């Protein structure tokens, strides 16, 4: 069986692995040649200069100050020095609040671990139930509730501690929810002016036989928001244009590569093989695996391809601008005040609740433009299809998970494959299998899952990167709960106790399963060490970005601008990081009463991850968007789910232990927890889904007092133009072409009946005459 020494050796392997990563990081980060890999955020902000441009030749690439090698862990205290308000200014509220998730883990589990090891562990250890049974168990299982005999009065200790742990967790969650809600409101009130504060996204604009979408949008908001409406930008279906622009960028990268290659060796012009039949390029850039095709001059080839794409881009742009069918029934509508935008985004605009649907617009860099071209009526069907697909993905994935769990138990393998016993019993092999292999195998199975879930979210039609990540995070959490948590317990139990199931009556099976649930603690300990400890240490090493940067730097970089573009700062990756954290919350809360030995491993993870990710947020990650901590209700809700699951599992476990007296008292715990969640949802969640009119009016009043001559229209005019329209051929330029700098010229309304929008376009009549005409018609 797995002994304490085996677990200790497995822990030593993972600790040494993590320590090796830290040593490698400490050495690599201080080398001048790696400066852009480990400090890209400061370069993006323009606050760090390139060390390769100064000093001696060798010193440009290798750090010759040997004193810096001595203090190789000085990055840890440095990561903790920046105060939270400064961190918010530096990295944004999303990043600062994300770090608070790790702090919550420490706040919850440090006191719980102290109580568990002071009270529960002695209660569990001072029994000999497992020794007298014929169950497969390890030394660690003696510290769990499995070592308590059936019907023992000691179960009252576990019952009382379940109440204590639940109340403490809820207290921490309430305190943090209140703090984060205040941080969000303060951030929204104090941050600088942004386009999304004045803009709403209008979807499902009803078709009108007499007016185009542009005319209809302007008329509708002139009538229904006459004092606050400012301007609008219709949504174009520019996905094909975007594909062409991206293709051209790739061609430019290849052209730059071959030009740099030629500049270094002008004695030989670079060439490549392509398939050309009747002057038509069939395959590019390298023929079939670079082995077949016609050899052509690489620079001439890519120059010609780029010119061809430029012509296609110009034609496609003209097609979009001049074709009314390219305009989607949606628009970004901007208002003169935040108050006007808040009213519009939070109210029903029409008698028909299915049209003129409004919501807060994402900030411009948060918009996922491809999905704006998806018809609104198809979203329900798309989400139904993805829900069915996710169901099958989640449950059929249990098959490989079951195989992985078979690696978590040495004795189970020896029973199934007795001829391997002599090899497996060797101490090094045994420790490696139990302490490293199961976690690695499970991570390999899960490595492609985030990309699959993100594709599912994109297919569903979410229109912002933040909402895509939140939906992917929700599905990733559900997947981990079903497969990693429940799947590990169920399949592991079936494999471990197969012999017992065969040789006992059916009425005894629930008792065996109940006893075996805490005995999976050994596997989860190894998973925490591999995924948590070594995984976090591997995150700070940034091995993949390091290799890619130097490959680009060697082959592609010609100018300082190229070197800047070669950096890959990355992001927090909320869609993968937060569900992983939630799995540790789930494990900690479930096993706090059942098998407290997991708690120290979880505490080490939260402490280590907090320091590492704080360092990465300060020096590396460059967030793609700012949602002002809009994800916090999801974080709170998932921890509540973990609390309720822990209570239900404890209830089921005690029912197999003949502790019937405690069951009625345990039933009240989930009820109280759900009531607590509803209280927090009603008290704090509105701050994350609505914008208080009082706050909006206050900020508008202050802004008018400070900037009475502010030209807000020029600030908002081009904020929500599709990126492919912001340059001649690509989105490198911040300037929009002339046809998008002004609102479309509207023609006088042709409608005989003014049922929806009685006002003519403001371009077809004066404002005063329009307002006089509006008095003759009722507003909808």
From TrEMBL:
Domain CSC1/OSCA1-like N-terminal transmembrane residues, every copy: 9-174
Keyword Membrane annotated: yes
Keyword Amino-acid biosynthesis: no
Keywords: Calcium, Ion channel, Ion transport, Membrane, Transmembrane, Transmembrane helix, Transport
Domain spans labelled CSC1/OSCA1-like cytosolic: 197-371
InterPro entries tied to this protein: Csc1-like (IPR045122), CSC1/OSCA1-like_7TM (IPR003864), CSC1/OSCA1-like_cyt (IPR027815), CSC1/OSCA1-like_N (IPR032880)
Positions with biased composition (Acidic residues): 729-742
Pfam families for the chain: PHM7_cyt, RSN1_7TM, RSN1_TM
Region (Disordered): 727-780
Transmembrane regions: 6-28, 101-125, 384-408, 436-455, 476-495, 583-613
Membrane topology: Multi-pass membrane protein
GO cellular component: plasma membrane
Cell location: Membrane
Domain CSC1/OSCA1-like 7TM region: from-to ranges: 382-654
Listed Polar residues bias regions: 755-772
GO MF annotations, alphabetized: calcium-activated cation channel activity
Similarity comment: family membership: Belongs to the CSC1 (TC 1.A.17) family.
The protein's name: Calcium permeable stress-gated cation channel 1
Lineage, broadest ranks: Eukaryota, Viridiplantae, Streptophyta, Embryophyta, Tracheophyta
């Amino acid at each position: 069986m797995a002994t304490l020494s085996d677990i200790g050796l497995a822990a030593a392997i993972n600790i040494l692995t993590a320590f090796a990563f830290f040593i490698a990081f400490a050495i690599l980060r201080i080398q001048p040649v790696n400066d852009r890999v480990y400090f890209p955020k400061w370069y993006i902000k323009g606050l760090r200069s390139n060390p390769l441009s100064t000093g001696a030749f060798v010193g440009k690439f290798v750090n010759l100050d040997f004193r810096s090698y001595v203090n190789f862990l000085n990055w840890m205290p440095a990561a903790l020095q920046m105060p939270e308000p400064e961190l918010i200014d530096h990295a944004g509220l999303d990043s600062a609040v994300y770090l608070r998730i790790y702090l919550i883990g420490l706040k919850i589990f440090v006191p719980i671990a102290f109580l568990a090891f002071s009270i529960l562990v002695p209660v569990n250890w001072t029994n000999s139930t497992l020794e007298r049974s014929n169950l497969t168990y390890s030394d660690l299982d003696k510290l769990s509730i499995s070592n308590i005999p059936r019907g023992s009065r000691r179960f009252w200790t576990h019952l009382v501690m379940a109440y204590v742990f639940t109340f403490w967790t809820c207290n921490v969650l309430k305190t943090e929810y209140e703090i984060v809600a205040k941080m969000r409101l303060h951030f929204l009130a104090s941050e600088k002016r942004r386009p999304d504060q004045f803009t709403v996204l209008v979807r499902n604009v009803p078709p009108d036989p007499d007016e185009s979408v542009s005319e209809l949008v302007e008329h509708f908001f002139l009538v229904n928001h006459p004092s606050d409406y400012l301007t609008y930008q219709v949504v174009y279906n520019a996905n094909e244009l975007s594909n062409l622009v991206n293709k051209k960028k790739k061609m430019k990268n290849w052209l730059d590569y071959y030009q740099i290659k030629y500049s270094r060796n002008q004695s030989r012009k670079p060439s490549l093989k392509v398939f050309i039949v009747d002057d038509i390029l069939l395959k590019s850039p390298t023929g079939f695996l670079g082995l077949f095709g016609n050899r052509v001059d690489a620079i001439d080839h890519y120059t010609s391809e780029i010119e061809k794409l430029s012509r296609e881009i110009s034609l496609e742009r003209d097609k979009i601008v001049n074709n009314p069918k390219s305009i989607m029934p949606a628009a970004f509508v901007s208002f003169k005040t935040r108050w006007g935008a808040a009213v519009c985004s939070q109210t029903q605009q029409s008698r028909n609740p299915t049209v003129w649907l409004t919501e807060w617009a994402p900030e411009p860099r948060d918009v996922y433009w491809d999905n704006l071209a998806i018809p609104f009526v198809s979203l329900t069907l798309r989400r139904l299809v993805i829900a069915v697909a996710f169901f099958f993905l989640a449950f059929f994935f249990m098959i490989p998970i079951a195989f992985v769990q078979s690696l978590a138990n040495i004795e189970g393998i020896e029973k199934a494959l007795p001829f391997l016993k002599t090899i497996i019993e060797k101490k090094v092999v045994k420790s490696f299998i139990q302490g490293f292999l199961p976690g690695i195998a499970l991570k390999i199975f899960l490595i492609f899952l985030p990309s699959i879930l993100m594709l599912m979210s994109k297919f569903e039609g979410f229109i912002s990167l933040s909402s895509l990540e939140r939906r992917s995070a929700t599905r990733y959490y559900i997947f981990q709960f079903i497969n990693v948590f429940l799947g590990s317990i169920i399949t592991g139990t079936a494999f471990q106790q197969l012999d017992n199931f065969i040789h006992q009556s059916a009425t005894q099976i629930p008792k065996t399963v109940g006893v075996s649930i805490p005995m999976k603690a050994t596997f989860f300990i190894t998973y925490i060490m591999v995924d948590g400890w070594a995984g976090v240490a591997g995150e700070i090493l940034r091995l993949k970005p390091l290799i890619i940067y130097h490959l680009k730097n060697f082959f592609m970089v010609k100018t300082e601008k190229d070197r800047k573009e070669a950096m890959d700062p990355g992001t927090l990756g909320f869609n993968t990081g937060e569900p992983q954290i939630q799995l540790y919350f789930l494990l900690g809360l479930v096993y706090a009463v059942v098998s407290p030995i997991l708690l120290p491993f979880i505490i080490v993870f939260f402490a280590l991850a907090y320091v590492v990710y704080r360092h990465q947020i300060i020096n590396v990650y460059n967030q793609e968007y700012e949602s002002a901590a809009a994800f916090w209700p999801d974080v709170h809700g998932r921890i509540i789910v973990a609390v309720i699951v822990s209570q239900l599992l404890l209830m089921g476990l005690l029912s197999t232990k003949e502790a019937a007296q405690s069951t009625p008292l345990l039933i009240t715990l989930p009820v109280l927890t759900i009531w607590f969640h509803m209280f927090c949802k009603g008290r704090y969640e509105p701050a994350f889904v609505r914008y208080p009119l009082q706050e909006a009016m206050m900020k508008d009043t202050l802004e008018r007092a400070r900037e009475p001559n502010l030209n807000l229209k020029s600030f908002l005019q081009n904020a929500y133009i599709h990126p492919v329209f912001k340059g001649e051929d690509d989105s490198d330029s911040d300037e929009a072409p002339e046809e998008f700098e002004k609102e479309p010229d509207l023609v006088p309304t042709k409608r005989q009946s003014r049922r929806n929008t009685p006002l003519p376009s403001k371009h077809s009549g004066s404002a005063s005459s329009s307002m006089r005409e509006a008095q003759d018609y009722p507003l909808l």
